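seq:
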Amino acid sequence: MIKGPPVFQGYYKDEQKTKESFEDGFFLTGDIAEYNPVLKEIKLIDRKRGIIKLSQGEFISVNQIEDTIIKAPSVENCYLCANRYYPYTVVVICPNVTYLKSKGIDCETEQQQLQAIQFVNQEVRDVCKQLGLKSFEIPKACIVEWVPWTPDNGFLTPALKVKRPSCKQHYEKYAAEILERIGKIEKCTNDQIARIV
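struct:
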């Protein structure tokens, strides 16, 4: 929440958005900050819209989890699907096909694609554990998208950043279906998850 002469007074001809963005004269930036009382500094650490509460009550940072997942060598791009109705998440991944080929996974046949899903799922899980994510933060399954995301197909910006609204619109229904199916199996193996995906 910020206030002062440099802060704008509201949105032009948009009272509704102005009401949503201001509280007691303070502008709500949507950033989450951390205050250091020793240095008397504020450090921005996340975006409010990037924090989601899962069904069991745990809060997760979508940006932090995606930043961790992208460190897996088999991941080219990713989008985390999470909402308050499920206790875990699903991640959509555009794989690094060159890396998979170097591991002997060609991705040409259905059997090889199943093998790729298993490999990516395991590698993402391992990287998340190594980098300290909690069990509820680690995606339960990876949806592997074989069509690369580009600015032309609307999934990346011209600066090659993932377009979250496009991904949400396209993948959320698949993620919800996968979470429903996984939720019905008591202890899902990596093979079962890959077959569901």
